[in-house]
Specification:
Oligomer: single chain
CATH topology: Rossmann fold
Largest sheet: 8 strands, mixed
Order of helices and strands: EEHHEEEHEHEHHEHHHEHEH
CATH superfamily: Alpha/Beta hydrolase fold, catalytic domain
Distance between the termini: 51 Å
CATH class: Alpha Beta
Number of domains: 1
Helix content: 25-40%
Number of helices: 11
Shape: globular
Strand content: 15-25%
Length: about 290
């Protein structure tokens, strides 16, 4: 068969990135994202649909928390996945009850979706959400100097782009605005996706794929990273996480990467609901 990227033919490459095929159905996971997120909005103090930019899609759900020892609370910003074309902030606060109970404020980020929005636009909107949080954290009792960010799948990619270098001056934030990050099952080199069926909606060319690949835009100084993926994920998804971890470590920066034996691509995020879980303990220790 004709090779389309490295040693991959088209069918094999497509199967590597069609991650939904690694589970029987997406619906139960999406239903739980929505269920647990709605419970957070019902049970907690929540500021819903807060605007953080000029586009009507640029919205945040904010869950304030009472910091420990009288200090302002750290902030965990979650960027949802869905291959840049699905989901919203409404399904992205499933960890809020756990984190708020532990003195950590939570922000769930909404952004415009592909294919109507380009990956460039989505990255810009997420960076504007980070900048908005840094400027406004004190208004909801949070510490602008203790911002952490995480996301899964496409959200893992976007998390990678938040800790990338070279964007901070344009958004008026310090280069160390993010103090730690949790990219789960992320995509950190978009070149193979450009050759796959994913490009039907990602619409990447060679230049935009490189421009939006975290491994090609490392910062001057990297914050601590926690990277993980489920055991049942495809080799390409596992390789993508290792790419960023290896690049981070090559610069002497902290990157904790591990395969979760009991989770898949879609349920690994639920460990953020439980600080006694494998991933949860690591995230709690990072945030402090």
């Amino acid at each position: 068969m004709t090779k389309v990227y490295e040693d991959f033919d088209q069918e094999t490459l497509d199967n590597e990135y069609l991650i939904s095929r690694t589970v029987p159905s997406l619906e139960p996971f999406i239903a739980d994202y929505g269920k647990f997120s709605a419970e957070g909005r019902d049970n907690l103090d929540c500021r819903v649909d807060v605007s953080c930019g000029d586009h009507p899609d640029q919205l945040l759900d904010i869950f304030p928390a009472k910091g420990k020892d009288g200090k302002a609370a750290p902030v965990f910003i979650f960027i949802h996945g869905g291959y840049w074309r699905m989901l919203s902030h409404r399904e992205s606060s499933f960890m809020a009850e756990n984190m708020v109970a532990n003195g950590i404020a939570v922000i769930a980020v909404n952004y415009s979706l592909a294919p109507d929005a380009s990956i460039d636009t989505i990255v810009q909107q997420c960076r504007e959400a980070i900048a908005w949080t840094w400027r406004n954290a004190a208004d909801f009792g949070a510490d602008p100097d203790r911002i952490f960010v995480g996301g899964s799948s496409a959200g893992g990619h976007l998390t990678g782009m938040m800790v990338a270098g070279g964007w901070h001056d344009a958004f008026g934030v310090p280069s160390d605005v993010i103090k730690g990050a949790v990219p789960l099952s992320g995509l950190h080199d978009l070149e193979p996706l450009r050759h796959s069926c994913i490009n039907e909606w990602a619409k990447l060319d060679e230049v935009s794929a490189r421009r939006n690949s975290p491994v090609h835009h490392l910062p001057d100084a990297g914050c601590p990273l926690i990277l993980s993926y489920g055991a049942s994920e495809t080799p390409e998804f596992k390789r993508q996480s290792a790419l960023l971890a290896d690049a981070w470590r090559a610069n002497g920066w902290q990157a904790d990467i591990f395969e979760h034996p009991d989770r898949n691509h879609f349920d690994i995020v639920f460990d953020l609901r439980d600080f006694d879980s494998l991933l949860g303990r690591k995230v709690r220790d990072m945030i402090g």
